Amino acid sequence: MYTYLGRRLLSGFITLLGVVVVVFFMSRLTGSPIDLFFPEGAEPAQIDAFNKAYGLDKPLAQQFGIFLLNVGQGDFGTSIWQQRPAMEAALSEMPMTLLLAAIAMTISILVALILGSLAAVYRFRAVDRTITILSLMTSSMPHFWFALVGILIFAVQLRVLPTSGSNSWLSWILPIATVSIGPIGVLTQVVRGAMIDVLSSGYVRNARARGFSARRVVYRHALRNAALPIISVAGDIAAGMVNGAVIVSVVFAFPGIGRLIVGAILNRDYPVLEASVVVVGVSIILLNLLIDIICSIVDPRIRLN
Amino acid sequence: MSKLLEISGLRISFESGFGKVDAVRGVNLTMDMGDAVAVVGASGSGKTVLGRSLLGLVDAPGVVRGSIKFGGEEIVGKSEKELRDIRGLGIGMVFQDALDGLNPVYTIGSQLSEIFTVRLGLSRSAAKSRAVSIMEQVGIRRASERYHDYPHQFSGGMRQRICIAMAIGLKPKILIADEPTTALDVTVQAGILRLIKDLQAETGMGLIFVTHDLAVARTISTRIVVMYAGQIVEEGPTEELFRFPKHPYTKALLAAHPARVRSWRDLEPIPDAFVTDPSSGETTGHSSPSIVITN
Amino acid sequence: MVLQSTPIVASSRITRWRASPKWQMFTSSPLAVASTAWLIFVVVLAFVVAPLVVDQANHQTIAMRFYAPFRLDKGFEFFLGADSLGRPIMLQLIVGARTSVLIAIFAVSISAATGYAVGVVSGYFGGWVDNILLRLADIIHTVPSLLMALVVLFILQPSIFNLIIVLGITRIPVYLRTSRTQTMEVRERMFVEVSKAIGASNWRIITRDIAPLVFPTIRTLAMLEVSAVILSAASLTFLGIGLQRPDVDWGMMVSDGRAYLKSAWFVAVFPGIVIVLTALSANILSNWLRAVEDPAQSTLFFRAKKKKGAAEE
After folding, report:
1. How many angstroms away from the CA of C173 is the closest CA of chain A?
2. Pick from C107, C108, C106, C112: nearest CA to C175
3. Is residue B294 part of a domain?
4. Contact C311 B19 (CB under 8 A)
5. What is the pLDDT of residues A234-248, one digit of tens each?
6. Which domain holds residue B168?
7. Per-residue pLDDT tens for B43-80?
8. What total of structural domains would you count in chain B?
9. How far apart are alpha carbons A260 and B205 in whole angstroms?
10. Domain map (residue ranges) of chain C
11. CATH of the domain at B39
12. How far is B277 from chain C (nearest CA, A)?
């Protein structure tokens, strides 16, 4: 089991390396920050000093070499935009995003488990139809629109929730709702599908044939088997939540890595961009690893192979 | 004294937006303790649905009409709660797919013990020892060690033995075996059949063995019931039916046995429609695909 | 007792199709019909109407700023109101439709075709080729698509073409993975071994035996992805990336209207509604297609009211 994890870790690391390389070259190719920091007709001397300070005067290959060396030591350079170490900037914003994602993920999974199971057990009846229609609708809604409508209804018309910021716990409600609404739709359908499959399986039928109560059959026998596909989908969902977090950052002025990345792009701040992407990448890789571990705990077939 | 099992006028149909299918069309059957009845028929003859209906496992859109009396009590129309009392305790069932029939995420030991803790209220340790002894009874060696293993760690034959253990664990009066050996290879088949026979001899329970394999039916049963298109077309003591079949369908089934067929020319097509002449009461088969019988 | 024979009736192709179960199922499901109708409507708007109204759509009239909707006195095109520069929203939506449809069709086609082809090859040959391709897919997959698109779109000039390319590339991994897994499963099947034994070349096996089996899954996936691409494109343009005026996209329209939420809600809400309706229709349709192939999973489309030919076991 540990060799399996070790291999996954290594594999993740290699992927991360690839991501970093890609980001490096892409951000360098976007164009130099010079255009943003210096007005037209600025003195060449100033431009040269700028370039020297940020190592932009060297050939690309050399820049890459230096970059790799620094990265190996955890140094992503200094933010051009914010004048502080890039990695520090990235790491300071990440926790909020992680918190937001974790809360949203928990809520999404719980809600999906309940709704999906209901839909599966009462298949084809009114309950199922309503739930399925609702989940179809929510998975067709773009994050930003949901956010805006939320603001329109709750903040502007009803005035119960703030439009932005993160001071009070109230201001967390809309952001969390926005990030979880899409996943709830998708996960509900996944749970429903998984439950339907499991409920028609031989072992569930056997459990019924042995005279167990419906509750026992569903909770003890069905649910654990239905959980497996959910857990594997959860990995992709989590990655999608970062997307949602970016939108939420922008629309609600909510602190998080999304805000940082959009700002870094607009300001052509390579160091911060690279650092941020690496931080996000690492988080996702670790998350996938965690999911693999959970999968192997839940399903003995994986564990014992 | 009432019989152990009395089925009369059983009709089961599946009604949905797609149409209506009559799976069982008027079946009468009785059996006592110690009887070994084989229900023989091809796929779609209704034999599986018949078996399931005895445990109340025919779900919507299936509709069960008629009467099934178990120990004098009517099963048709019982609520789910009442049916639960019968399942496992009164009537046990073994199915065809042994791998799919065992929950992959729990050890088979815990699945066996569960039956005893939940239905009999035994303590954990008492349930465990019961489980181990029943595993030994069905022929699993090193039972106390294998108690902690998962279903995928057993071979097909062993898994089926475990399923049998689960079905008889609560000492039911009737065991329904729905094609338990179909998915197993012939050598393993023999072992399972012997096990079922031995268990029946030990406990004296009634056995309903559903199969499409005539050879198996002959080995395991004292009485055979032949089903076709939802009806019982012939019934009788095993040896007598094999030697002197009366219904054309039975005759055709027996004639199709590989031992009697030397080339494809020897094969007789099995009629897909039977016409009973009302005056003489004689049934003959017709094999024209374009002919439809409308009553 | 009556014995009668059932005659075989000869009929034309269309009448036979009309009576076919698929068409019946389609017409008996109002949701499927409605979704298809909406999508066809959008496509017609996109390709037929859009070219006609482009100039009018971009015509700015300061006097018409934030003209409220649901009034016809200034002309039909202002029925849905006007935005911050006086441009008629209805016409903007129509031009936006063209953008969205183009992006959706091409991006999905590119990613589906590439993912499908590469996945089949990768899954069939295995070995180091497979490893590398999988690794590449992982890299694209690890960075959340939005981020990736954001970064990439900064290299390239904002344009519909680039948006298509970016969305096409970032979504390849999904198809690649599915295609690869299915290929690996099909590869182990008996008939492939038979083909090899007969001496069929790899190319032949891939194109004749394996690819057709993988195709239906990809097709289903592609349909689902249409909705996802529409939403992604809208998100990107909402963030201000990927497109520049005079190119219009629904997401961009929502973004424009964001600042005026209190005073002129319609500038942001109408485009949003259109996005949701379109994505929803695509979603419903792909669900319907899946339901047709595997009724057990469906719920919206099979009701116990009409009698059909097929019977259940």
Report:
1. 12
2. C112
3. no
4. yes
5. 877 887 887 788 888
6. 5-105+150-286
7. 778 888 888 888 888 877 788 888 898 888 888 888 88
8. 1
9. 74
10. 46-296
11. 3.40.50.300
12. 9
Q: Which portions of chain A are predicted below pLDDT 70?
A: 1-2, 26-43, 46-47, 49-60, 71-81, 162-163, 165-167, 303-305
Which among B95, B71, B50, B91 has a CA at the least distance from the CA of B174? B91
| CA–CA separation, B287 and B275 (whole Å) | 11
Q: Which chains does C contact via 3+ CB–CB distances below 8 A?
A: A, B
H helix intervals, chain C: 13-19, 21-27, 30-44, 50-57, 89-125, 127-142, 145-152, 160-170, 172-187, 190-198, 202-204, 211-238, 250-257, 266-293
Closest chain B C-alpha to C190 CA, distance in angstroms? 20
- Residue B47 CA to residue B54 CA, distance in Å, equals 11
Pairing of strands B206-211, B36-40: parallel
Q: Which fold has domain C46-296?
A: MetI-like fold (1.10.3720)
Residue of A209, A301, A304 lying closest to B93 (CB–CB): A209
> C216 preceded by cis ω (within 30°)?
no
Average pLDDT, chain B: 84
Confidence band, pLDDT 50/70/90 cuts, at residue C12: low
- Report the residue of chain A nearest B55, measured CA to CA: A209
| CA–CA distance, B103 with A204 (Å, rounded to integer) | 8
Architecture per CATH, domain A86-304, reads as Orthogonal Bundle (1.10)
Q: Give CA–CA dist C139/C154, Å, rounded.
A: 19
ipTM summary value? 0.78
Q: What does the block give as tokens for B244? A: 């002197």
C251–A19 C-beta distance less than 8 A: no
Mention every residue, 6+ apart, whose C-beta is less than 8 A from residue A59.
none
Give the per-residue pLDDT at C214: 85
**pLDDT: which is higher, C188 or B287:** C188
A224 touches chain B (CB under 8 A): yes
Chain B CB within 8 Å of residue A304 CB? yes
- Give one word for B220, left, alpha or beta, with left for phi > 0 and alpha for psi -120 to 50: alpha
Least confident of A10-19, B140-149, C116-125: A10-19
Specify the amino acid at residue C214.
Answer: V
